[in-house]
Design brief:
It contains five helices and ten strands; from the N terminus they run ββββααββαααββββ. It has one domain (38-189): Beta-Lactamase (2-Layer Sandwich), CATH 3.30.450.20. It has 190 residues and is an alpha+beta fold. Strands 5, 6, 7, 8, 9 and 10 form a six-stranded antiparallel β-sheet that branches. It has a four-stranded antiparallel β-sheet with strand order 1-2-3-4, with no helix packed on it.
Length: 190
């Protein structure tokens, strides 16, 4: 059991296999939130967001993530359960992560709830944040890069170097910017 501060509330987490149970709030306002990691990919948001991730990747790189014909739901499952890391953030002034597949959750040692409430800048140590900001500016300008390497840090402070990451802009079906994503399958703990 772990207590984590989160705003005014306190989250108490219990892990049992792939399920996270959180006690949220105080006294009369307590509620239990169950996060079944195995079923996150089934949510409407994740299904729609995965379609955006794949469509935008194809738009910028001309590459498909998977070959074959799949429904959006099947794509969402395949991406969530893939052995590579895929994360994304939105377009806020201080962008917040809004997606991470199972490999990302494990690498950053976070639950879905934690990851999707984390400003993406906090995935890098303070000295590496300027480098990260330059990377994201280059992606914004060019649409994508496919050779990024850099050091990141997990929630508990484990440092790791990612290699040959592809980072790309996300766009809506109408072509409006809606975030950025990163994908990689090579990392080494430092």
């Amino acid at each position: 059991m772990v207590d984590l501060p989160f705003g005014q509330a306190c989250f108490t987490l219990w892990r049992a296999h792939s399920t996270v149970i959180a006690l949220v709030g105080h006294g009369l306002h307590d509620r239990i939130v169950t996060e079944d990691i195995a079923h996150i990919w089934k949510t409407g948001f994740v299904i729609r967001h995965t379609a955006c991730l794949l469509r935008s990747l194809k738009q910028w790189t001309d590459h498909d993530l998977f070959t074959g014909i799949f429904t959006e739901r099947e794509f969402a499952q395949k991406v969530f359960e893939a052995p590579f890391v895929l994360v994304s953030h939105g377009t806020e002034d201080d962008p917040v992560l809004n997606y991470g597949n199972r490999a990302a959750l494990e690498l950053w040692e976070m639950s879905w709830m934690e990851l999707t409430n984390t400003p993406s800048r906090l995935t890098a140590e303070a000295p590496n944040r300027q480098e990260r900001a330059r990377l994201l500016a280059a992606v914004t300008e060019r649409g994508f890069i496919d050779d990024y390497s850099g050091v990141r840090i997990s929630k508990i402070g484990r440092r790791f170097r990612i290699e040959r990451a592809t980072v790309w802009n996300l766009t809506t079906e109408q072509g409006q910017p809606c975030g950025q994503a990163a994908m990689f399958d090579r990392w080494n703990f430092l």
